[in-house]
User: What shape does this take?
Amino acid sequence: MTFTLKILFGTVLILPFFVGISPADADIYRYVDASGCVHFTDTPTHGRWNMYRKEVPSAGAGHRSYLDIIRYHANSYRLEEALVKAVIKVESDYQPRIVSKKGAQGLMQLIPETARSLKVNNPFDPSENIRGGSEYLRRMLDLFDNDIELALAAYNSGPNTVKRYGGIPPYNETRNYVKKVKHYLDYYRQSGDTLL
Assistant: This one.
């Protein structure tokens, strides 16, 4: 949902508050167009959107922080927490409602078909998404004898593509993806309980 904020003669019209949408419902992005109009959205569609307000998981009953969710599912699937954090960082930059051009959804960017096969009913729910993504990451590690680079390449471009090329496919996107995740993996290994 996108809203426009117009600043005219010192008057500010803030539509989200008048239509009953709470700013805490999702991450909010801001974009100022060439005419000076300020636009807000929870689903950015181009690179000119900038983070305006970050959604913070509620500390209330029944809600857990991303760190708690990651820790739980990493332990369940025998994964290093730092690896799950790194994949989330590169896949979605911790934006739970993001959708890629290819249709991948949520924190760990699950393709709908993959999400269904993992029994993820709501890919925008952080706990469900991280559980599904962690399970898929574990499958890729098992398939490629715990070779992190091949598992990450398979997470990005599919296991059949990795098998077909006998290694990391010669795609810039996949090669850059593996490098980025490894970079953040090193970062999270050193920094411990933190998220970027």
Remarks:
- The chain is about 45% helix and 10% strand.
